[in-house]
Amino acid sequence: MASSNISDLFPFIQKNIHLFDAQNRFLKKIILTGKISALDKAANLFEFTERTIETFTNLKEELIPLLIHESLKKHTEELGSKAQISIDILIRNLFERTADVGFLATDESIISYLNNQKNADQLRKRLIEYTMKYSVYNEIIITDAEGNIRLNINKDNGLSSTNDPIIKTALQTDGYVEQYAHTDLFAAQPKTLLFAQRIIENQQAIGVLILCFRFDDEMERIFSSLLASDEHILFTDSKEIITSSMNFTISANEILRINTDSDYVYHNKNFFVSAKTKGYEGYYGARWISIAFKNIKKESSVSTTNTTLVKCTLDDKIQAILNKSDDVVEDLNDVIINGELIATKERVYVLTPILDNLRIVSSSILETIKETVAHLENTIVDGLTYDVQSSAKLAIDIMDRNLYERANDCRWWAMTPTFEEELSRDLPDIKRLCTVLLYINNLYTVYTNLFIYTSDLTIIAASNDQTVIGKNVTGEYAFKTLNNQNTQSYFVSNFESTPFYGNQSTYIYSATICMNGKILGGIGIVFDAYPQFQAMLNDSFPSSKKGFSFFIDRKGFVISTTHPTIKPLDHIDLDDDIYRYNSEQATHRLITFNGIKYLVGIAVSRGYREYKIQDNYKNDVLSLTFIEY
Question: Could you give the angle at which helices 120-133 and 108-116 cross, rounded to 10 degrees?
Answer without folding.
Answer: 150
